[in-house]
Amino acid sequence: MEEVDELFWQVRTAHRLLVAYYQRLHPIIDDLATFADTVFDFWTPQLFDKPARANPFTKWQWDLLPAAVTRYVFKQVKESSKVTKGDFTLEFLVVNDTGIVKEKGKGELDALALPLNVEHAESIIKVGIYRAAENSDKDYFSQWNSVNYPDYQDDDSFKRDKLFLTTGFEFPISLLLTEDGVQAVKEKIDKYLKITQQAISSSQS
Known about the structure:
- The protein is of the alpha+beta class.
- It has helices spanning 2-35, 98-101, 140-144, 179-204; strands at 39-45, 69-76, 88-95, 124-132, 159-161, 164-172.
- The chain is built from 4 helices and 6 strands; from the N terminus they run H-E-E-E-H-E-H-E-E-H.
């Protein structure tokens, strides 16, 4: 009986810790987006579905943890109905457990038997910047949504992908636990925004 009680103590603790974690993480991500002068666009789970009103017993239990690997998307766009040169999207891909991503596409995952254990998995954030390099009369979302993810190489370079210049970097989530770490991420975001802006300004001149 003590083992059963301990199990549910751990479940209750895990849920409360997750809420406390997101209560701390989300304001920081929002602060980074505000620093970049962007507005919230949308969020979505990256690997699983959002919890639905459909029968939960016929879906993956992983859907009950929609933020395990999640995209948070912000943008600075003049008109959503078209693409304006200089518009950009700032995307945060939050990977709370790389051990989950490693098993993507292998069906329902046994949470207690993932090959990459928690000690060796990582918690990272991938930051993607997508800057419009030319104008288009087509709506912004459809054009942005058609490009690939950046390489996240963090080498001051960028790629041309259809109408956009794309670039990015990644860092451990633990970096956001200190003010210095948050400032370092802000500086890097600012650097890549300037790199892509200068690139399209140079091409225009």
